[in-house]
Amino acid sequence: MALHMAVDVVRESEQSLTSQIQRFIRKEIAEGILHPGTRLPSTRRLADDLGVSRSVVVEAFGQLVAEGYLEAVRGAGTRVVEHVDAAAAAAVVPALLDEGLDAPSPGARWDLRPGSHTFAAFPRREWLSCYQRVLNRANVTDHGYPPPAGEPGLRRELAHCLGRMRGVRADADQMMVVGGFAQTLSLVCAALARDGVAELGIEDPGHPGQRQFVRDSGLRPVPLPVDAEGIDVEALAASGLRAVLVTPAHQFPTGVKLSASRREALARWARDTGALVIEDDYDGGLWYEQGGIRPLALQREAPDHVLYAGTASKTLAPGLRLGWIAAPRPLLDRLLRVRARQDLGTDTLTQLAFAELLRGGQFDRHLRRLNARARSRREALEEAVRKQLPGARVIGRAAGLHAYVRLPRHLDEAAVVAGALARSVLVRGGAAFHARPGPTAPALVVGHAHLPRSGVTEAVREIAEVVRGR
Q1: Would you give the DSSP letter of residue 396?
Q2: What is d(CA 360, CA 144) in angstroms, rounded to the nearest whole number?
C-alpha cells in the first residue's frame, strides 16, 4: 500500500537526516501520536516522499527496530510495536534527542560503535593510589577553587609529557586544563565568534556530533573533503576560511594519516594567512601499528597558529571530563577570558591525581597495556574481515579504538547496517559521518578495542551472514 506519513526534517540542519527521522518517530510514539500497531510506509515510499536516499530511511527504521519502537514483519511491513510503554518511551526520548555515537543501545549484543568504552581497561589500582596520595597531602588551597588555566603541577607534567610523546612545542604557561574536548571546542568557537569569525572548516567525513556542536555554538561548519592523504588543503585554501578543525594523526573516521606534503601545506597555509588550525589529537597515545611511529604533533610545525587539543576520554575514561589545550599565549588569554564567563575551572583533585599518574610513569605503563589490548582486537578484526568478508578491507592506520572497513562497492551499506541490527550487531555505516549527502563508497566504522577478541570475530561473522544473504 502507498501509505503516507508526515515526518518533519530540516535539510539545512547539521544533524543527519537519519537521526532526524529517528528522533521524530520516537517523539511521535512517546507522545501517543503514532499509536501501537500503526503501519508505516515502506522505506522506499517514505524515502521518495521525503526526497532522500532510501538508505537514510532503512538505517533509521533499522535503529528503531533495534530499540524496540518498531517491528518489521515479513510480508506485513513495518509497524509501531503493539506494547509500547508510553511512559517509558517518553522517559527515554529526552536522553536520545541529542543522540551521539555512543547513545544507549538496548537490545544489541555486540555494540561496534566507535564511541563505546569499557571500564575494564581503566587503571583502577594506579588511579586509586595516585588519588589517595593526593588526598593525604592536600592542603587548604587544594580544596579551594582551581586556577582557571588548571593546576600548575598538571600543566607542567602535561608540557613535559606532550613534548616527550608528541613533540608539542609548549611551556606550562601555554597549557590549559579543560573539561574534555567538548569544552575546548566550545571555548574556541566562542573566541572565534568574538573575533568576527563566522565559519569553521571541518573534515568530511568527520564526527557528526562535532558538526552539530559547532553549529550550536554559533558558527557555520564548512565541510572540506578528505581523501587517502587526509584533508584537502587546496580546497581549504580556496575556501577563504580563517579557521579549521583537523585530526591529522589519525583522521576520524577513516583512520588515514595526513601526508607529509599535506602537513607541510597546512602549516604553510596557517602561517601565510594568519589562520587558526585546531589540532584534535582525540586518541592520544593509542598507536600500535607494527613498525610504525606515531606522527609528531602538527602544532610543532606552526606553534603560533595551531591550537593542540588532547583528552583523557579515550585513554582513561570519558567520565573524568579531562582534557588539555596547548595554545599560543595571546589565544590562550582570550580563551581564559571566555572561560571566566562559563565556569570556575576543572576539578582540582582529579587534576592532581592525573599529574601524579603522569609523574610516576603509571600513565605510560597504562598506555602500553591499552595499546597491546587494542592491537590484539585490531588483529582479530582484520583476520575476521579477511576470512568472512571477501572484497572488504580494513584501511587506515592501526591506532585508536576504531577502524574503517571498506566494503565491496556492490553492497548496499544501509541494508548491511539494518541487517546487522536484526542480528543484534549495532554498527555505523560510513555514510553517517558525511556532512554532504550523496553516493559514497560503502563502509563500516567499527569500534573494536572494547570487545573481547571472540566478540570481534563473532560480530563480523554476523555481518558476513547478512552480506551472504543479500
Answers
A1: S
A2: 25
Contact assessment for residue 224 and residue 235, using Cβ atoms and an 8 Å cutoff: yes
> If phi over 0 gives left and psi between -120 and 50 gives alpha, with beta otherwise, what is residue 305?
alpha
pLDDT, residue 83, reads 65
Grid cell 561473522 — which residue? 461
Distance CA 220, CA 224 (A): 13
In this prediction, residue 325 carries a pLDDT of 98
Distance in angstroms (rounded) separating the CA atoms of residues 199 and 275: 12
Sign of the C-alpha dihedral, residues 344, 350, 353, 358?
negative
Please, is 361 exposed, middle or buried when counting C-beta atoms within 10 Å of its C-beta (0-12, 13-18, 19+)? exposed
106-120, 142-156, 332-346, 428-442 — which is least confidently predicted? 106-120
Strands 402-406 and 443-447: antiparallel
Q: Provide the β-strand partners of residue 77.
A: 73
Whole-prediction pTM value?
0.80
d(CA 163, CA 169): 6
Rounded distance, CA 357 to CA 351, Å? 10
**Per-residue pLDDT, 438:** 64
Per the CB < 8 A criterion, the answer to whether 11 and 52 are in contact is no
Domains and CATH numbers, the chain: 1-99 (1.10.10.10), 101-117+361-470 (3.90.1150.10), 124-360 (3.40.640.10)
Confidence of residue 53 (pLDDT cuts 50, 70, 90): confident
In 10 A of CB 291, how many CB atoms? 4
Which residues are bridge partners to 199 per DSSP?
220
* Grid cell locating 314: 579515550
Residue indicated by cell numbers 530511511: 57
Would residue 442 be called left, alpha or beta, if left means φ above 0 and alpha means ψ between -120 and 50 degrees? beta
Of the listed ranges 118-122, 196-200, 272-276, 369-373, the least confidently predicted one is 118-122
Tell me the helices (H) and strands (E) count for the chain, helix number first.
15, 17
- Residue indicated by cell numbers 551472514: 465
What is the C-alpha to C-alpha distance for residues 114 and 376, in angstroms, rounded to an integer?
Answer: 17
CA distances from 292 to 99, 186, 287, 374 (A): 35, 34, 8, 15
